[in-house]
């Protein structure tokens, strides 16, 4: 067995040393009625690298990968080009096979990269501080709501019309048990500002996504002002962080907490995970003390040399147990590393260029598709994603597109359930799309709709 | 004394020796913000042909402040930083409760196949039948190993899986109309901190059960706590003292008799695969840390994955999204409440940690059913071998053999002037990552040693020799070797108090 170094001679020697004759003498604490004398009979025996590889290659071949199609899906997960050096570096043994940096003297690699990651996240979101990451954007959103409830000591929360429905659902699931009452406004385009009139003196926070799930860019300033006027907080959600290279940051527009999905930078689509949740907030004591998750912080060692440690851990479950700000234990370690390396490669200049390139492609595609008879562009403003109204059922249309080798976006019905917005299609374009891709898409769509 | 830190020092003592560490191979490296430049980019992008603006006058007008690196500078920065990390690939990593086993590279290779890594969670299900089939196979293996009835794949980490299980339990209690009366969750003192934190996040009240002198649940104390207000017990098995809970079936029966549920923390599943199935122990829900038992990399703190197996009593409450259908008729996904009878909700966007499913299934198939049983046997054998070699110089917390990890307390250091922390730091100077220290909380100055099954006999002997030599040195009065340690690491001890008192969480110009 290639992963097990012991052989039968070793095992015999070790049993002698321990003073047992048979391995089962070490398992006698298992109640006799529960012991498995024949092991895991329902499973096949061990297999060689080659045969395992064969099995997985077959399964992988049953999927249509984005790279083998003309690809335009977004809605919370985006396909970007990740430089080869990113994947090489995150596979360094010292990063890949290290644990959480609980012994800082021999974990400075992880700790310094986390500190740099936190700085980058704070910079692009325009916030004072950021933590060392959450599981994904949706759980970051839920944790941000709990954080806001603790800060304001209030327990109602309003979710905007353009919030990704998975984020809405996860937030409701993960907060209602602590007595937070969330109200999700009915989904729709151009309706995010409607929640302003619902804010009152009991509102802990409002949650607004920009660009929203339909792709619209939302001005957060009036929302922040309305929330602050009632003593409530604005949680800004972003599921496509490349947009922050081109858009005014949520911090600049008055957000108090930012919850974002960082997958777009450094991380592959991976069928939905693992991803990397970003959580940033105001650099104020009452915010930081109520934040979930880990922070890396700067300090000095015994010789006065600068170094980094995990800090403010008296908020966390391993110290505070049932009084912790969250039950989270891990972060998205390796995904944060991919994020920080990719963003270091981009820099300010690269991120802005990349963002403009995405916007340019999306504008061109929107014009092309919007010119097809019967098709209407519903989102006047957008970054790299927009929503079309089709003269047909969008779910049926994307199936027909898939048959032609085009993964043509996400029907709104896939997100919100059938029956509400069956003719809406949400389409994303990124730097990975060529002119050929876009021409193929518009030709095929025109054909299907004609 | 603070119960949780046991007076563990969080500031380094004044230095007597200055750092001796210097290595031609370990280069000084500044922060990204000291080596990078505002106008540098290491990425070549397509030239812009147009600068459209459909941003509704919300275009950014200020720079982000990010700095960039060229590709060669990037490689240097991160390779140099990587050299400041300890890792499994460098040596034995005996962190108890963390299961730091070898991470097979076949897992990494297969997770990167375009058919898994380059597919979108919301592309038509007709184009991802292989991915859904893979999730179905992961479920099959986990159910065979545990004997349970259903598995929720979406939880993104162990603590997220705990949440999933406890939410299912909450939903079941709610369905019976007993949510108001069943509020109390029993949690042993030896539990991971995530257990009480999870129960609290699910709206329950925590009631602690003490351990008995043998390191297991104190049955008399447990019985005394039973009543009609019990929602559940959260019990780790084998527990965090490295011991199998011998009364586990009786505990399950009693909790069930009182109308409660049994949540098992599956962090230590690595010790019992193929030796018993948790179904036969009376478990209702258990998360499985794919990053522990099933060898997906820890990655410096994640990402993990925490699929949660459920009994037939809880299966209906499993959260969205989940795979439906089968190979013959085609797989599909249940993503909306109306597609499930009683799902308690949704725990995250999309359907779970696909990248980790590929790695874990690769590992499970590589070992097979017989290999997984051997994994557990070797993990337990390795831990007991270390226990046997160390027991006379160290103080085992409890008598007898252990499961996959051996727990010591600090009695062997009494009167030496050396603490568990000092001892751990001295181990760093010997080239090892320390064991888990000061956890579990039920013994003083805990040292929890988990070698895992992927260490050779030679490696175990080297480690044991080092540990014994250190114990002798501590007892012979060589105190500064410990209190000043580490001297040969990239950093000396760091000042945690300063970090917490004056938080510096981001670089500022």
Describe the structure.
The complex is a heterodimer of chains A (450) and B (509). By secondary structure, chain A is α/β, with parallel strands linked by helices. In chain A, 37% of the residues lie in helices and 14% in strands. Chain A has two domains: 67-82 and 348-449, Aspartate Aminotransferase, domain 1, CATH 3.90.1150; 84-342, 3-Layer(aba) Sandwich (Aspartate Aminotransferase, domain 2). Chain A has 14 helices and 15 strands. The mean pLDDT of chain A is 97. By secondary structure, chain B is an alpha/beta fold. Helix content of chain B is 32%, strand content 10%. In chain B, the strands form three sheets. In chain B, strands 1-7-6-5-4-2-3 form a seven-stranded mixed β-sheet, sandwiched between helices. In chain B, strands 10-11-13-12 form a four-stranded antiparallel β-sheet. In chain B, a hairpin with a 3-residue loop joins strand 8 (322-326) and strand 9. Chain B is globular, with a radius of gyration of 25 Å. Chains A and B meet through helix 1, helix 2, helix 3, helix 4 and helix 5 of A and helix 2, helix 3, helix 4, helix 5 and helix 6 of B.
The top-level CATH class of the largest domain in chain A is Alpha Beta
Q: Average pLDDT value of chain A?
A: 97
Query: For the residues shown, what is the average pLDDT of chain B?
Result: 95
The value of Rg of chain B in angstroms is: 25 Å
CATH topology heading of the largest domain in chain A? Aspartate Aminotransferase, domain 2
CATH class category name of the largest domain in chain B: Alpha Beta
Structural class of chain A: alpha/beta
Helix percent band of chain A: 25-40%
């Amino acid at each position: 067995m290639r992963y097990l170094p012991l052989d039968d001679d070793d095992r015999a020697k070790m049993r002698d040393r321990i003073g047992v004759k048979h391995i089962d003498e070490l398992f006698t604490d298992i109640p006799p009625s529960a012991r498995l004398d024949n092991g895991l009979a329902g499973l096949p025996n061990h297999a060689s690298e080659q045969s395992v590889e064969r099995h997985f290659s077959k399964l992988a071949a049953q999927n249509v990968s984005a790279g083998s199609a003309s690809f335009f899906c977004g809605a919370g997960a985006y396909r970007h080009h990740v430089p080869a050096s990113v994947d090489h570096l995150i596979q360094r043994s010292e990063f890949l096979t290290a644990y959480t940096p609980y012994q800082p003297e021999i974990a400075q690699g992880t700790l310094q990269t986390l500190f740099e990651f936190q700085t980058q996240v704070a910079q692009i979101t325009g916030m004072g501080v950021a933590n060392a990451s959450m599981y994904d954007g949706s759980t970051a959103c839920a944790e941000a709501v709990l954080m806001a409830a603790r800060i304001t000591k209030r327990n109602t929360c309003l979710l905007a019309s353009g919030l990704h429905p998975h984020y809405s659902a996860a937030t409701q699931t993960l907060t209602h048990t602590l007595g937070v009452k969330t109200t999700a406004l009915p989904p729709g385009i151009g309706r995010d500002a409607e929640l302003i009139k619902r804010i009152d003196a009991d509102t802990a926070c409002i949650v607004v996504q920009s660009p929203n799930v339909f792709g619209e860019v939302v001005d957060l300033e009036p929302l922040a002002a309305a929330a602050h006027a009632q003593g409530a907080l604005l949680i800004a959600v972003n599921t496509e962080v490349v947009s922050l290279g081109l858009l005014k940051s949520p911090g600049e527009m008055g957000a108090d907490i930012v919850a974002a999905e960082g997958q777009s930078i450094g991380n592959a689509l991976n069928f939905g995970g693992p991803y990397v949740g970003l959580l940033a907030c105001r650099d104020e004591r009452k915010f930081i003390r109520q934040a979930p998750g880990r922070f890396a912080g700067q300090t000095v060692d015994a010789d006065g040399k600068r170094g980094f440690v995990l800090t403010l851990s008296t908020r966390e479950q391993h110290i505070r147990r049932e009084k912790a700000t969250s039950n989270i234990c891990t972060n998205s370690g390796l995904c944060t590393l991919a994020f920080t390396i990719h963003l270091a490669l981009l820099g300010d200049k690269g991120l802005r260029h990349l963002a403009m390139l995405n916007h340019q492609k999306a504008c061109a595609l929107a014009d092309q598709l919007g010119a097809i008879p019967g098709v209407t562009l519903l989102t006047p403003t957008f970054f790299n994603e927009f929503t079309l109204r089709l003269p047909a059922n969008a779910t049926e249309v994307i199936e027909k597109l898939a048959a032609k080798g085009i993964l043509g976006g996400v029907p709104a019905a896939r997100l919100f359930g059938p029956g509400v917005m069956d003719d809406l299609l949400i389409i994303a374009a990124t730097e990975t799309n060529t002119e050929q891709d876009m021409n193929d898409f518009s030709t095929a769509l025109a054909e299907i709709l004609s | 004394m603070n119960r949780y830190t046991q007076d563990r020092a969080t500031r380094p003592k004044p230095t007597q020796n200055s750092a001796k560490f210097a290595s031609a191979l370990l280069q000084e490296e500044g922060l990204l913000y000291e080596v990078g430049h505002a106008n540098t980019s290491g990425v070549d992008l397509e030239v812009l042909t147009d600068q459209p603006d459909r941003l509704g006058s919300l275009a950014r007008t200020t720079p982000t402040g990010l700095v960039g690196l060229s590709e060669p500078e990037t490689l240097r920065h991160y390779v140099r930083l990587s050299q400041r990390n300890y890792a499994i690939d460098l040596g034995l990593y005996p962190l108890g409760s963390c299961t730091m086993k070898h991470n097979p590279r076949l897992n990494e290779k297969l997770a990167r196949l375009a058919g898994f890594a380059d597919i979108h969670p919301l592309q038509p299900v007709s184009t991802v039948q292989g991915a859904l089939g893979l999730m179905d196979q992961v479920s099959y293996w986990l159910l065979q190993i545990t004997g349970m009835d259903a598995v929720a794949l979406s939880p993104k980490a162990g603590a997220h899986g705990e949440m999933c299980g406890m939410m299912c339990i909450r939903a079941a209690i709610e369905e019976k109309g007993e949510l108001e009366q069943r509020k109390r969750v029993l949690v042993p003192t030896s539990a991971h901190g995530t257990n009480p934190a999870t129960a609290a996040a699910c709206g329950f009240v925590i009631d602690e059960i003490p351990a008995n002198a043998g390191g297991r649940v104190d049955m008399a104390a447990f019985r005394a706590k039973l009543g009609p207000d019990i929602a559940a017990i959260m019990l780790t098995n084998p527990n965090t003292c490295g011991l199998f809970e011998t009364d586990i079936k009786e505990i399950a029966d009693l909790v069930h008799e009182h109308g409660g549920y049994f949540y098992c923390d599956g962090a230590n599943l690595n010790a019992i695969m193929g030796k018993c199935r948790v179904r036969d122990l009376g478990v209702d829900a258990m998360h499985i840390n794919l990053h522990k038992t099933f060898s997906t990399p820890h990655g410096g703190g994640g990402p993990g994955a925490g699929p949660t197996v459920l009994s037939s009593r809880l299966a209906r409450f499993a959260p969205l999204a989940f795979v439906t259908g089968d190979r013959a008729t085609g797989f599909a996904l249940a993503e909306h409440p109306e597609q499930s009878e009683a799902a308690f909700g949704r725990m995250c966007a999309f359907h779970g940690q696909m990248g980790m499913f590929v790695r874990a299934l690769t590992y499970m198939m590589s070992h097979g059913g017989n290999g997984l049983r051997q994994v557990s046997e070797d993990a337990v054998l390795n831990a007991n071998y270390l226990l046997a070699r160390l027991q006379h110089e160290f103080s085992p917390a409890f008598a007898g053999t252990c499961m996959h990890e051996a727990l010591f307390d600090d009695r062997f250091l009494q009167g030496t002037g050396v603490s568990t922390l000092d001892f751990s730091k001295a181990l760093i100077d010997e080239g090892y990552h320390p064991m888990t220290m000061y956890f579990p909380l039920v013994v003083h100055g805990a040292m929890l040693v988990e070698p895992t099954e992927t260490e050779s006999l030679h490696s175990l002997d080297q480690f044991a020799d080092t540990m014994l030599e250190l114990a002798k040195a501590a007892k012979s009065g060589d105190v500064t070797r410990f209190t000043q340690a580490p001297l040969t690491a990239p950093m000396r001890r760091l000042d945690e108090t300063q970090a917490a008192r004056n938080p510096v969480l981001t670089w500022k110009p």
